[in-house]
């Protein structure tokens, strides 16, 4: 039995990872933000799974989680940095608070948790897995903050991989395309709020962009893959003898990844603009 900490395990990808690893017989420390989510996990998982309150922006909770795992006499064979939110809007009008919130959760939070858990990962020569996104390779209009956070995750995981190599600690990033989780409904509700809060002239100027965003959210939600696919990649990243540096998950992600590798910027962006249907003013 190996022990793994997963952040953001209340729903979606984090939950699928937690339940898969629990089914495989591992000890899962599952980070959640409410007692209600902790109880839900207790009800469906084995008695091995330990839900822990962990908001990745709360330094005291991060320290408590590290202390609790140590107090159990345990170490971590893996850390899965999964917690995340997706914020966006027209950059011209987006408040700096939105940027701070986005980067605080998706970037600083992952770094804070990783720093605190490394002393528990080091003795096992464990693994650190970041849940990035194909949005860390190819940006989407109106999702600037989210994409920036995922581009940052690519850089952080690469730098950390070099730094920890001497100790045999492998760091990798999982890059899913659209996955069927609560993030899409949250995204739609968030887009409603952003649109409502925009000044009238911005709503008018960005009407076509906003319509494309809604269409894209609906389409991706319909075509999204099962979170279990990501959980399978995470299992490989954590426990295979030959873990990869990157796991691209989903057909859409593989196509986008090939577009980035195979096409120069101008033709690629022209294709994306044409698909999105946004025309020059
Ligand atoms: N779904 C996709 O299509 C997709 C594609 C590529 C990458 N991803 C990435 O996959 C990860 C999981 O997303 P998901 O799709 O599974 O969405 P989700 O169902 O909304 O799950 C997000 C998780 O993050 C948690 N979270 C949010 N803010 C947090 C904070 N401050 N501290 C700790 N936990 C926090 C949420 O907890 P609460 O329930 O308490 O809010 C929830 O458990 C994210 O990093 C996301 O960017 C998703």
Question: How would you describe what is shown here?
Answer:
With 281 residues, this protein is of the alpha/beta class. It has one domain (3-251): Rossmann fold (3-Layer(aba) Sandwich), CATH 3.40.50. Helix content is 56%, strand content 12%. It contains 11 helices and 7 strands. The chain has helices spanning 12-23, 35-44, 59-71, 96-121, 144-164, 183-197, 200-205, 207-223, 227-239, 251-262, 265-276; strands at residues 3-6, 27-32, 50-53, 78-81, 127-131, 170-176, 246-249. It has a 7-stranded parallel sheet, sandwiched between helices. α3 (59-71) runs parallel beside α4 (96-121) and α4 (96-121) runs parallel beside α5. The longest helix has 26 residues, at 96-121. It starts with a strand and ends in a 5-residue tail after the last helix. The model has no long low-confidence stretch (mean pLDDT 95). Bound molecules: NADP nicotinamide-adenine-dinucleotide phosphate. Residues 7-8, 10-14, 33, 54-57, 82-86, 105, 109, 131, 133, 176, 178-179, 181-183, 186, 224 line the site of NADP nicotinamide-adenine-dinucleotide phosphate.
In short, what is this structure?
This protein has 281 residues and is α/β, with parallel strands linked by helices. Helices cover 56% and strands 12% of the residues.
């Amino acid at each position: 039995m190996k022990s793994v900490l997963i952040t953001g395990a209340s729903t979606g990808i984090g939950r699928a990872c937690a339940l898969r690893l629990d089914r495989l017989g591992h000890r899962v420390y599952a980070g959640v933000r409410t007692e209600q989510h902790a109880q839900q996990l207790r009800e469906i998982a084995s008695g091995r799974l330990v839900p822990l309150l962990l908001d990745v922006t709360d330094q005291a909770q991060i320290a408590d989680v590290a202390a609790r795992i140590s107090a159990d006499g345990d170490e971590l064979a893996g850390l899965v940095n999964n917690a995340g939110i997706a914020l966006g809007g027209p950059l011209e009008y987006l408040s700096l608070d939105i940027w701070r919130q986005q980067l605080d959760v998706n970037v600083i939070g992952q770094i804070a948790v990783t720093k605190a858990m490394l002393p528990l990962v080091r003795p096992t020569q464990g693994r650190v897995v970041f849940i990035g996104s194909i949005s860390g390779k190819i940006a989407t209009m109106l999702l600037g903050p989210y994409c920036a956070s995922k581009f940052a995750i690519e850089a952080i995981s690469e730098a950390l991989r070099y730094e920890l190599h001497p100790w045999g600690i492998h760091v990798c990033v999982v890059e899913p395309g659209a996955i069927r989780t609560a993030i899409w409904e949250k995204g739609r509700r968030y887009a409603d709020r952003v649109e409502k809060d925009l000044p009238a002239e911005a709503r008018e100027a960005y009407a076509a962009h906003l319509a494309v965003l809604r269409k894209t959210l609906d389409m991706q939600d319909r075509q999204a893959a099962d979170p279990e696919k990501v959980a399978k990649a995470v299992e490989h990243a954590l426990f295979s003898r030959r873990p990869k540096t990157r796991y691209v998950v989903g057909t859409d992600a593989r196509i986008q990844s090939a577009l980035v590798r195979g096409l120069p910027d101008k033709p690629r962006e022209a294709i994306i603009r044409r698909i999105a249907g946004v025309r020059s003013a």
